[in-house]
Design the sequence.
């Protein structure tokens, strides 16, 4: 639940590729936005360590993540200049669909180059060492720091096929793909459209165990996924067990908590607390869709977050004596708790660093740190230390929310008010035979929570609950 979106330069620079990697220690996962052009700036010439464009050392970055138990989702996205050159100048956009201009976007073969990229990336960073070396291409460049042909490094388990393919805001620049077109794209990327495209094409043909995540769609609409499934039924068929032969292993969508669905006056548009916005309903819709369809697939949300700039339509708001930065921290952590409660399997927040704190553009100031960590970073770091390996078990109360998390014989209760007006209340936690309770409170500017011990009287523990989550362990 504590993943984050980031770029390779957030880890360090070309000479010290993991110099700033300590900034990732508050998180359990990173969704790495990786532009295709970094790896293959010239058709058929692939490089990773360093990348031919930019000189980034991906091997060291992924090795550091592996050593620090931070799961990487590699999101391969955008198109390189050599593919962009096939488009008329007025239609050139790096986010165009990954196929040559004029190609049939409903034909998997149109996405061959992107599917070959998937094979090459999976061959290097996946877990399969038994790959024909003649199928793996690495350009030994630059000459003073040449790339080596590494196979099966075992550093990446999850790979995402592009980002937001249903770009409804860019329909005139051939960036938008409908569900059927994106399914064709995925089918090529997944396994070379059931191995029909020849050797060296598709992620699964390099590593059958690598998990292919569909590109996060926005708006999050289960119907889009349903249309993809029906395309697979028609063009990929049905397995022996009767299930559709899908070309993705994880359902993925993006969702941000805001009031734009009900507030049309732009000056009044803003972020909303996760439990009060439509994002919770959308999560339930996807959970219901999975159950109704009988799908054995995880559901991920790979973008969620809030800005702190007061001019953004995605801003967190000051509440009482809390600044927008503290509200951002409250809402982000509560979102992690909410999605865990709903049954969403993995969550990535947007994003580690601001694009520009001074910008009022939406998503430009949604970072967990600017020059210094924000309260949101502090809260995540502390929550990860305390609750990182725990699993959501059940909800005991709706308002205030009282969730129980378990790990082996330990139980931790998380209490919070699902609101955005500064409400406070007192809740009596049933303590059974426990004589004491350890209470953990989040702290700004610290690496660990404030811890106090309270005596339990008459089997009940009164707890002051606010819109900032508080954690209780019965002893």
Sequence:
């Amino acid at each position: 639940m504590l993943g984050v979106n980031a770029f390779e330069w957030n880890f360090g620079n070309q000479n010290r590729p993991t110099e700033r990697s300590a900034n990732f220690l508050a998180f359990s996962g990173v969704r790495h936005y990786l532009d295709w052009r970094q790896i293959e700036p010239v058709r058929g010439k692939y490089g990773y360590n360093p990348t031919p464009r930019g000189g980034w050392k991906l091997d060291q970055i992924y090795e550091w993540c592996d050593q620090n138990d931070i799961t990487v989702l590699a999101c391969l996205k955008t198109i390189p200049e050599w593919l962009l050159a096939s488009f008329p100048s007025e239609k050139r956009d790096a986010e165009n669909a990954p196929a040559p201009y004029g190609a049939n976007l409903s034909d998997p073969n149109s996405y061959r180059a992107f599917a070959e990229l998937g094979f090459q990336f999976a061959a290097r960073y996946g877990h399969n060492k038994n790959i024909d070396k003649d199928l793996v291409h690495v350009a030994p460049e630059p000459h003073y720091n040449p790339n080596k042909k590494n196979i099966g490094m075992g550093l990446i388990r999850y790979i995402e096929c592009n980002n937001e393919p249903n770009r409804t805001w860019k329909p005139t620049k051939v960036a938008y793909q409908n569900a059927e077109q994106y399914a064709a794209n995925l089918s090529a990327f997944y396994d070379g459209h059931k191995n029909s495209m020849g050797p060296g094409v598709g992620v699964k043909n390099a590593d059958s165990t690598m998990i292919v995540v569909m590109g996060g769609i926005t708006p999050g609409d289960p119907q889009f996924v349903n249309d993809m499934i029906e395309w697979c039924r028609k063009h990929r068929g049905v397995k022996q067990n009767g299930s559709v032969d899908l070309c993705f292993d994880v359902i993925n969508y993006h969702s941000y908590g805001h009031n734009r669905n009900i507030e049309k006056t732009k000056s009044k548009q803003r972020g909303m607390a996760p439990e009060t916005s439509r994002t919770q309903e959308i999560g339930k819709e996807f959970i219901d869709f999975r159950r109704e369809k009988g799908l054995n697939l995880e559901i991920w949300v790979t973008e969620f977050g809030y800005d702190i700039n007061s001019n953004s339509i995605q801003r967190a708001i000051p509440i009482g004596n809390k600044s927008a930065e503290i509200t951002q921290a409250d809402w982000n952590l509560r979102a992690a708790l909410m999605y865990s409660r709903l049954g969403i399997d993995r969550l990535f927040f947007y994003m580690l660093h601001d694009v520009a704190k001074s910008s009022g553009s939406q998503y430009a100031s949604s970072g967990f740190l600017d020059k210094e960590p924000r309260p949101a970073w502090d809260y995540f770091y502390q929550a990860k230390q305390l609750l990182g390996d725990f699993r959501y078990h059940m909800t005991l109360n709706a308002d205030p929310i009282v969730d129980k998390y378990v790990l082996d014989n330990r139980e931790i209760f998380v209490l919070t008010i699902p609101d955005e007006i500064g409400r406070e209340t007192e809740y009596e936690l049933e303590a059974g035979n426990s004589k004491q309770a350890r209470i953990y409170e989040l702290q700004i500017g610290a690496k660990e929570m404030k811890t106090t011990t309270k005596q339990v009287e008459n089997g009940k523990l009164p707890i002051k609950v606010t819109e900032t989550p508080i954690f209780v362990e019965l002893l």
Summary: Residues 229 and 246 are 7 Å apart (CA to CA).
